[in-house]
Amino acid sequence: MAAKRCCHVHDLAGPKVSFKEVAFRYPTRIEPVLSDVSFCVEERSHICVIGPNGGGKTTLLKLMLGLLSPDQGTIELFGIPPHRACRHVGYVPQHSVIRPGFPITVREVVLTGCVEQHRFGWHKKGCGESADQIMEELEIAGLAGRPFSRLSGGERQRVLIARALISGPLLLLLDEPTANIDPKVQQQVRETLNRLSSRMTVITVSHDLDYISGELDGVFFVNRSVRLLQPGEVTSDAVWELFTQRK
Amino acid sequence: MPDAIQQLVTPDGILFMPFLVGIMGSVTFGVVGSYVTVRRISYVAAAIAHSALAGIGAAVFFQHRFGWAWCTPLTGAFVAAILSALIIGRVTLSSEHQGDSVISAVMVIGMAVGLLFLKKTPGYFAPMSVLFGDILLVSKRDLWIIGGLNAATIACGVLYYRKLLAVCFDEEYARLRGVRADLYYLLLLLLTALTVVAMMQIVGIIMVIALLTLPAMTALLLVRKLWHCMIVSGGLCALFVSAGLAGSYQTDMPSGPMIVMMAGSVFLLAAGAVKIFPVARQG
Lengths: 247, 283
Hints:
The complex is a heterodimer of chains A (247) and B (283).
Chain A: E1 17-24, E2 34-41, E3 46-50, H1 57-65, E4 72-77, E5 89-92, H2 106-111, H3 127-137, H4 153-165, E6 171-175, H5 183-196, E7 201-205, E8 218-222, E9 226-228, H6 236-244
Parallel strand pairs in A: 3-7, 3-8, 5-6, 6-7
Antiparallel strand pairs in A: 1-2, 1-4, 8-9
Chain B: H1 2-9, H2 16-39, H3 42-66, H4 73-94, H5 99-120, H6 127-132, H7 140-159, H8 161-169, H9 171-176, H10 181-220, H11 226-251, H12 255-276
Helix pairs in contact in B: 1-11, 2-7, 2-10, 2-11, 3-4, 3-5, 3-10, 4-5, 4-10, 7-10, 8-10, 10-11, 10-12, 11-12
């Protein structure tokens, strides 16, 4: 992976996400995971990425985050390479390796989202207010002082979304945000993401077929390549058909 | 017990110097021990502590063989501990699956090298005093050196608190945010090495691990935040050191094991009490 030198870009130009003829293969595999992937995502879009297991969804996300470098092609976020754009990207992982019983409160977890902004990690003025504002918006203000390890799955998910939002990202990437949470909370998370997409670009990787029937600006189907689904294909039956087709 | 307490708090008392070092060290144990416990690197800390014996043995040998007065056991321990921390850090960062093996290798090779050097040094040197601590070896000069090491360790632990908290909590996310998680991990190992060197004379290199972990583990049963854990575990450590020193004087038993017995007993009592009476720290 290229050395990460995150920078604050003042003159962001171009589409939020741009992939041009990108190909990637893991060193331990013969077949490429992604090949000839080209697409653009404009600002303030709400995009869902779906696809079968092993189709390359998580790899696509990692390429956007700069955790992996493409073997071919170019990837740009706001006109610059992903590893330099990290200050403008918020990320909500599917699995967070949180050590059980770690002594950290919800508010502290949210504040770790802006720890890189100061030399010694001490929060800039305004970070605390931002954290409180975001927690209010996501309806988790009442959990501020609670230990993170004691939260339910849905509560944790919202805290991790708050952590991703505190740095004021222009692009929010989420990996399976509705996995392992009950349907009522899934709906709340979907509504939250729809609200957020009015002020930033939101890209969600999801297996949840209910997710794609919501308000989305586009659905990408990923199975070694990336295809934007047409409106008529964005139904549970049509997507199920795509999942069962062999690549 | 009044005689023991008098020995502790009176400047002329034989326990006064170790008591001062113990109190100073308690703050360091509280800060660094909390990081070590939550980051789950107590095995790494044990390896660093054991490998310090290589430096101690080499220093004693060179002091005798070449007459290098500056080459004290403390200096040797410092060099060996820092070196082991760097080796373990580099290997575990570049090759995680080999981490356990390398940590074990550093630990046992360090001890073996130390014992060989000590064997080759003519005259009597009691390795047991290094392994289990000897309060009578603490001098005024050591007090200044240990005080300096503790001050540097505490300063780093406090100054970089937010970054270390972020890295210990979720290293991958911190890295994604542009935090140099690898450097902070190495910093943590170096702080551990400094703590081991600073406190090994009180409780010995084997027992120093107990004071890095037991007070923090006890505190974690009660607190919600990491900095609360540092304060509580520092206070507990001061209590264990004081009570252990007084108890060892009173019963004519070695101080290191006495201190650790105090710490272990309190931890077991606290863990049992929390099971029976769950503490409402979750709010």
